């Protein structure tokens, strides 16, 4: 959300015990590393659909959706029933990688409703509970398969906070937290990084073919089709196709990080569908469980699945309730194209509203960004974008910022958000933009 700790916008919530007496401020105990609670200083107690409720009764429209973890909203009733039944029936909760019925049902459903209809053939690995685990597994396997060390990543990319994933992340503040050199990765310019000055892949292709470039032949290239944390930078379909062709030509594995932009965020289930490419590996997490449960997948082309048993493992890679809700979410939302069409229509509406705002403030050169329901409005500075997010919070809307300087107002609402709430939230943003730019 932010690259530096913002000033907290209102007084800290003061909790009380059952007798009404104040108790110790929990923020005094929690590490200063916390971030979202600084910009949104409320204590939230309930959530339903696209609305979060604070303990003082204030309701907030949610344009954040757990950073893309809640594509189907908070506490969807049919998914909630699956969770409740799972616990009430004493089903397996923790299973490592043992066979369980819910694990089998998820794999069957994922294959039948997601992979096969798209003509995709992947093995599924469960690398751990979060997206960074999925990325680490992909990088590790790419190096094992190819025998090479280097990985090409892209400017403004974000892939996680563990050391391997952080090494292919662009943000300097996040990289600086590693405390050690981050090696065996080489950043390259993302689509439109230089505008139209440099033709696509001219630099990377020259380095790959020049024996004097100093670039070791990479094991893999890792890319987001839409850079979320990087500022809602959407790669063109032709750029992605060119990247896939380049990787194939030089026998480099292509990894698409679909952790935030997959599961329908850009329209299709996978964000790379529009480009018509087939990555060698795909990482998924966030909304794959459908309910906010921890679950991550690394999809691997069958010929690359050369793991030895137990060569990559983790304690929390068999969370039963996550398998159960993931299966139900796929059945509910991916048995037809209704959600995809709805997401594309809502995304077009957001884009039209942002275009209207940008046109009205043409002197500030605002930039409208994104695909589907991953949308951004780039401001002249991070300070202005932060002021807009803060004002939106005061008016009952949760919206974050992203980009190298947090200069982009970033929208990730639930794909199921009702149209009236989407419109109301955009009204709040529009008023906040007007106010912030008038004061700039």
Please explain how this structure is put together.
With 440 residues, this protein is α/β, with parallel strands linked by helices. The chain has two domains: 26-75 and 338-439, Aspartate Aminotransferase, domain 1, CATH 3.90.1150.10; 77-333, Aspartate Aminotransferase, domain 2 (3-Layer(aba) Sandwich). Helix content is 35%, strand content 15%. It is built from 13 helices and 17 strands. The protein has helices spanning 36-39, 65-68, 77-88, 101-115, 131-146, 163-167, 172-176, 202-209, 237-249, 320-333, 338-360, 382-394, 419-439; strands at 44-48, 51-54, 59-62, 123-125, 151-154, 185-188, 220-223, 226-227, 233-234, 253-257, 281-284, 297-300, 367-371, 374-378, 397-398, 400-402, 408-411. The strands form four sheets. Strands 4-12-11-10-7-5-6 form a seven-stranded mixed beta sheet. Helix 3 packs antiparallel against helix 10 and helix 4 runs parallel beside helix 10 (320-333). The longest helix is centred in the C-terminal third of the chain and has 23 residues, at 338-360. It is globular. InterPro entries: Aminotrans_3, Aminotrans_3_PPA_site, Dat, Ectoine_EctB, PyrdxlP-dep_Trfase, PyrdxlP-dep_Trfase_major, PyrdxlP-dep_Trfase_small. It is an enzyme of class 2 (transferase). Belongs to the class-III pyridoxal-phosphate-dependent aminotransferase family. One of its GO terms (molecular function) is diaminobutyrate-pyruvate transaminase activity. Residues 1-16 have a biased composition (Low complexity).
């Amino acid at each position: 959300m932010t690259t530096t700790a913002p000033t907290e916008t209102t007084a800290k919530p003061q909790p009380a015990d059952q007798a009404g007496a104040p108790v110790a401020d929990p923020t005094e105990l929690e590490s200063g590393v916390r971030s979202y609670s600084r910009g949104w200083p409320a204590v939230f107690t309930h959530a339903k659909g696209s609305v979060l409720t604070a303990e003082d009764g204030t309701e907030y429209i949610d344009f954040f959706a757990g950073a893309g973890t809640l594509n189907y909203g908070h506490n969807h009733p049919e998914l909630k029933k699956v969770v409740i039944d799972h616990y009430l029936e004493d089903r397996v909760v923790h299973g490592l990688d043992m066979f369980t019925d819910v694990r089998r049902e998820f794999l069957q459903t994922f294959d039948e409703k997601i992979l096969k209809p798209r003509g995709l053939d992947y093995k599924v690995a469960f690398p751990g509970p979060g997206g960074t685990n999925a990325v680490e597994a992909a990088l590790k396997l790419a190096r094992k398969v190819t025998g090479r060390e280097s990985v090409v990543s892209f400017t403004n990319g974000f892939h996680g906070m563990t050391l391997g994933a952080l090494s292919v992340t662009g943000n300097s503040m996040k990289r600086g937290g590693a405390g050690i050199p981050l090696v065996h990765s080489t950043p390259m310019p993302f689509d439109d990084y230089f505008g139209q000055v440099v033709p696509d892949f001219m630099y990377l292709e020259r380095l790959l073919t020049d024996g004097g470039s100093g670039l070791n032949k990479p094991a893999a290239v890792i890319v987001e089709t839409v850079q979320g944390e990087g500022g809602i930078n959407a790669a063109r379909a032709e750029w992605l196709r060119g990247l896939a062709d380049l990787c194939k030509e030089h026998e480099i594995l292509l990894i698409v990080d679909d952790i935030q932009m997959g599961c329908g965020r850009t329209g299709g289930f996978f964000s790379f569908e529009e480009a018509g490419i087939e990555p060698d590996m795909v990482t998924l997490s966030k909304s794959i469980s459908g309910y906010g449960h921890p679950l991550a997948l690394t999809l691997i082309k069958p010929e690359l699945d050369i793991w030895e048993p137990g060569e990559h493992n983790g304690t929390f890679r068999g969370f039963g309730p996550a398998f159960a809700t993931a299966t139900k979410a796929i059945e509910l939302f991916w048995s037809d194209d209704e959600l995809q069409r709805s997401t594309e229509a809502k995304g077009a509406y957001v884009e039209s509203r942002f275009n209207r705002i940008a046109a009205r403030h043409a002197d500030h050169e605002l930039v409208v960004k994104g695909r589907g329901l991953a949308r951004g409005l780039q401001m002249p500075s991070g300070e202005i974008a932060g002021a807009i997010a803060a004002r939106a919070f005061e008016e009952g809307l949760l919206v974050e910022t992203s980009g190298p300087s947090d200069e982009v107002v970033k929208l990730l609402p639930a794909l199921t958000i009702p149209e009236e709430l989407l419109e109301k939230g955009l009204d709040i943003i529009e008023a906040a933009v007007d106010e912030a730019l008038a004061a700039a």
